[in-house]
Amino acid sequence: MKFLRTEDSRFEGLQDYDFAPQYLTVGQGAAALRMHYVDEGPRQAAPVLMLHGEPTWSYLYRHMIPLFTAAGHRAVAPDLIGFGRSDKPTQRSDYSYQSHVDWLADWLVQMDLQGITLICQDWGGLLGLRLLAMMPDRFARLVVANTALPTGDQPMNEAFKSWRAYSQAADPFNAGRIVYGGTISKLTEAEVAAYNAPFPDETYLAGARQFPMLVPDNPDDPAAQPNRDAWQVLRGLDLPVLTAFGAEDKVMAGIDGVFQKLMPGAAGQPHVLFPAAGHFLQEDVGPELARKTLAFIAST
User: Fold this and answer.
1) Which candidate, 227, 262, 226, 229, places its Cα nearest to that of 243?
2) Fewest CB within 10 angstroms: 64, 74, 236, 292, which?
3) Catalytic annotation on 249?
4) Distance separating alpha carbons of residues 250 and 2, to the nearest angstrom
5) How far apart are CA 49 and CA 47, in angstroms?
6) Which pLDDT does position 76 carry in this prediction?
7) Regions of the chain short of the pLDDT cut 70
8) Which of 79, 221, 249, 284 is catalytic?
9) Into which CATH architecture does domain 3-299 fall?
10) 174 vs 19, 206, 277, CA distance in Å?
11) Catalytic residue among 122, 217, 256, 284, which?
């Protein structure tokens, strides 16, 4: 598998992101890829696992990681394959929903995390919820933030259709500007540049271009049945579930109610809809989301 590896120099001097890079290899043989992750705090402490999505990387969680470590937790945030400091296969055909699940599952098994508090946003949920269904015994609780687990049985809303069309037509594909457009509190130019850092040019963008096309949009999509199967497991889990959504996220509007209805552990929890938060709520209300999560951990 042909892949690119973004030069380390592009990640130097990023404000509020001075975490030591950590790496594991996922996949086998010629398909082996290096996956980057942040791993802060005591290794024996209860882990908070933060999963990013499109088109971001672990930098998204820079304002939350210190709050978790200060509270005594282990804070772990990987970069998905194709993103951040992780390797980036150059062919869009190398990326499938299942390949992303497999890469992330491989990483999680190697990390051997237990008692996980999972925070998942965007594709972090489309993947993280699959891992929860695969390995429920590893997880203690779930924070669902502006994400979904679609099965292709419901039509996509117009906001998602517009985003998907834009993601394919945009020239250039500017990850930083995309994040800027999905926040209420506007990013600085340095922050925009940090989201663009993983992608020196178009050849590095195969994963980011492909992600929107992998969301199941019809009942016969290759990921549709695996996601239905995952929902069957999720409906039967009793782990505590907190939804934390941004009121200004048009793509994910109302999906928090799906989790509140379908997951038993969501009953009676202090779900939150942040009024001044968009899709990338880690940028808009990151510290507040971390504090809500810490309170959720303490109460469950």
Assistant:
1) 262
2) 236
3) yes
4) 36
5) 6
6) 99
7) none
8) 249
9) 3-Layer(aba) Sandwich (3.40)
10) 24, 13, 21
11) 122
